[in-house]
Amino acid sequence: MRRGNFIELGFRMRLAWFLFVLIIGAGAAAGYWAWFAPPAANGGTAEKVAEAPVPVEAATVRIDTVLQQIRAVGTLRSNESVVVASEVSGRILEIGGAEGQEVVRGKVILKLDPAIYEAELEQARSALALSERNYKRANDLKASGAGTGRALDEAVAALRNDQAAVTLAEARLAKTQIAAPFNGVLGLRRMSVGAYVNPGDMIINLEQIDPLKVDFRIPENALSAAKVGQPLYVAVDALPGEQFEGSVYAVDPQVDEAARNITLRATLPNRNGKLRPGLFARVSLIVARHENAVLIPERALVPMAEDQFVFRVVDGKAVMTKVALGERVGNEVEIVEGLKAGDTVITDGVLKIRDGSPVSLLTAAAGS
What we know:
By secondary structure, the protein is an alpha+beta fold. The chain has helices spanning about 5-35, 45-50, 115-145, 150-175, and strands at about 55-60, 60-85, 90-95, 100-105, 110, 175-180, 185, 195, 200-220, 230-235, 245-250, 260-270, 280-295, 300-305, 305-315, 315-330, 330-335, 345-350, 360-365. The strands form 3 sheets. Strands 2-9-12-11-10-13 form a 6-stranded antiparallel β-barrel. It is rod-shaped, with a radius of gyration of 46 Å.
C-alpha cells in the first residue's frame, strides 16, 4: 500500500471516531434534558411550575398583656399559729371548742380545775389581812414612841411579802383558763377532758388561716426586683387549675450564704378557706407588665445558630424575618422586635419554603 493511501485511511478513521463521540454526547445531553427538565403544565413554562405556591398554615400575631415573672417554690404558712400549753399543772375541766371549729379572740379554749389555786389565793389573802393589821399596830406604836423601828420594818416586810403572795396566787389561778389570742381555727386535740397536765404539756393548736403567708426564695441576682408590695400568683398541686393572688410584704434582710438566695414572705387572702398551711406552693412573682405585647405561636420560630427567625407572609410570599424574643407564655412567645400588630407568620410548613417562596394559606387565625 502506498504511503498516501495509508495516511488517507488513518484520517478517515479519526474522523469517524470523532463523529461517533459527538453523536453519543448529543444523545446524552438530550436524555439529560428530557429526564431532569420539569414539564410545562397546561402549556406554561417550567419556571412557572417551580414557583407554584406552597400550601402552609399561618397565624396572625396576637396582642395582649404579658407579665414578666420570676418563678419559685415555697410553703404556705398560717398567718398566726400557736400551740396551747398550760403554764400550771392541773386536771382539764373543759376544752372550749371542737376540733376544726373557728373561735374568736378572747374565747376561753381551756379550763383547768381551779379548786387548789382558789384555796391558795384565800390562804394568801388571809395572811395579807393579818400583815396589814400588824403593820398598822407597829406603825401606831412607833408614832407614840412605844414601838421600835425594827418592829416597824419587820411589819412592812411581812406586809409586802404577803401582798406578793396574793398577786402570785391570783396569777396562778388566772392561768387555769387560757383564751384565744387571735381569731383562728382549732386544730386536733392532744389531750381530753379529765386528763392531768403539767406545765408545758401541749393540748391543742390554734391556726389563723385567713390570710395565709407564703414563704419562698429567689436567686440573689434577682434581689433588685424584690420589693414590698409586688403582686404574685400562687398555685398548689392540691387545687389544680386554680390561682390565688397575693402580695409581698417582707423581704428578709439576710441572704443565705450557702444557697445564694433570699427569702420573701407574702400574704395571701383565704376567705373561702380552700388553702391550708403547709401546702407546697408554686409562686409566680410579677416583676413587670408588658402592655400591648406581640405574641405568636412558639412553633412559628425558626432557629438558626444563635438567632431566631420567622417567615412573614407578605403579598403571598414568605419573607424570612429576624426576631428578638421576650417572655414565653404557655405555647406562645413574646416578640419584642421584628413583628408588629397585623403581621401574619407561618406556623406549619416552614421546612418546605425558603425566603421569597410563594405560599398559599390554609389557615390564618389570630394566635392559632
